[in-house]
């Protein structure tokens, strides 16, 4: 696919992301994405056969982007504390931004009766390995306390996703993400 085709797909994913965040996965149609992106049905279907493929690319993109970011920064020898600070700062912003949360859409997508949950487990495993690599990297450099990296990951991911999910259903006090981030830092630093 050429540069223009990839730019169009990126435009589609951006339009679809906002719809999925607003409506969840089940309520978004290809027609909605056509209207939001300004593409004709033919133009949209030239790039994606359905909402599932668009959603998969969005979710895969997030996981891959963070995985690449961690690997790149660790590979360059960036201090683990700096990487942690930057990621947790972003997580805090995301927890406070309920409008941009895909948590409900992710729940709907992966709990569909016909869908296997292996894809979700694969993503969970990739995310866990990435975070464990950062935590172990930080411990090896003497920047992080000695901790159970898997347990810390569980606290990070389930706290983050829990706040994101709840924020779609009720107002969340902005101090909640602050307290969570503070405790994660206290566990590690």
TrEMBL record:
Signal peptide: none
Domain of life of the organism encoding this protein: Bacteria
DNA-binding region: 29-48
Annotated Pfam families: TetR_C_17, TetR_N
Keywords, in A-Z order: DNA-binding, Transcription, Transcription regulation
InterPro entries on file: Homeodomain-like_sf, HTH_TetR, Tet_transcr_reg_TetR-rel_C_sf, YfiR_C
HTH tetR-type domain span: 6-66
Name of the protein this chain belongs to: TetR/AcrR family transcriptional regulator
Species the sequence originates in: Kineothrix sedimenti
């Amino acid at each position: 696919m050429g540069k223009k085709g990839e730019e169009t797909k990126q435009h589609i994913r951006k339009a679809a992301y906002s719809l999925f965040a607003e409506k969840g996965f089940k309520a978004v149609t290809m027609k909605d994405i056509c209207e939001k992106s300004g593409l004709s049905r033919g133009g949209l279907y030239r790039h994606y056969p359905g909402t599932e493929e668009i959603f998969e690319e969005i979710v895969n993109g997030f996981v891959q982007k963070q995985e690449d970011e961690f690997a790149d920064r660790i590979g360059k020898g960036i201090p683990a504390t700096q990487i942690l600070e930057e990621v947790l700062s972003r997580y805090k912003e995301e927890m406070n931004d309920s409008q941009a949360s895909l948590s409900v859409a992710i729940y709907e997508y992966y709990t569909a009766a016909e869908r296997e949950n292996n894809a979700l487990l694969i993503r969970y495993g990739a995310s866990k390995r990435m975070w464990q690599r950062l935590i172990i990297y930080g411990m090896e450099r003497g920047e992080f306390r000695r901790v159970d990296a898997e347990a810390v990951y569980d606290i990070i991911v389930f706290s983050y996703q829990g706040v994101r999910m709840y924020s779609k259903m009720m107002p969340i006090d902005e101090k909640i993400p602050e307290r969570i981030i503070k405790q994660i830092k206290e566990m590690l630093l």
